Amino acid sequence: MFEEESRLFLGKKGRPALLFLHGFMGCKEDWLEMASFFSGKYYCILPDLPGHGRASFPVDMSGLRLAEELHTLLRREGYDQAAVCGYSMGGRLALICRESHPGIFSKMILESVLPGISSAGEREQRRLLDADRARRLLRTDKVRFLEEWYGQPLFKGLKESSGYRAMWQRRLQGDPQGWAKALEAFSSGLQADYTLWLKAADIPVLFLAGEWDQKYRSLAEKLRTWGANLETETLSACSHNAHLMQPQEFRLRIDRFLRK
Fold this sequence. Notes:
Layout: E1 7-10, E2 17-21, H1 32-38, E3 43-47, H2 63-76, E4 82-87, H3 89-100, E5 105-111, H4 120-139, H5 142-149, H6 164-172, H7 176-185, H8 195-199, E6 205-210, H9 214-223, E7 230-235, H10 242-245, H11 247-259
Parallel strand pairs: 2-3, 2-4, 4-5, 5-6, 6-7
Antiparallel strand pairs: 1-3
Helix pairs in contact: 2-3, 4-7
């Protein structure tokens, strides 16, 4: 996994490692501008996640298998530990990776990340919903699916942002079959609930949400009163994809967090 064409590295080895994990239908290039800013101080690692960008989707892929692959990727680059910045699906996968390899991350930045679903019944409902979405993705024209997906309320204002057109062009290069497989294999209905771990996190965690993303803004407000290692911040004038809509502000928040 993580063939040469499915990963990017910015910065010099020997500097602290900073791993960027993109969201559903994303690719490593989604983080390129952000990682370029941090490459002067960090060795930035940008992989395409399975089924996305130029990464294949192995038959036996799962959240736990991906955790092993990410651990192997870091070790191959000479690192036992890294800071991680994960967006949405990428952040959930980072939580899975941290569970199976507790010492792998020194700090975690979670952008618009669902830490888990507590009810078994609700988890099953979500798994079935994602399975249905995966089937619809394969039946629907790609452009139509993208329009419907980014037309959801949680992406309020995204189409008006300066980075949207470039992101749209990257999505047009994506593979719906890979997306569908990832949607099922990495469904939040299959993951554990990491909410309690966040409450007593043993490493520094920054949870970021957009002002216009009501669900995750409310989650950030709830988490704000929790453990000493957990920080939460809400970014103004943006929704679910805060790093695309407010890149400068997002960058400043991350930089401040990593400097502590």
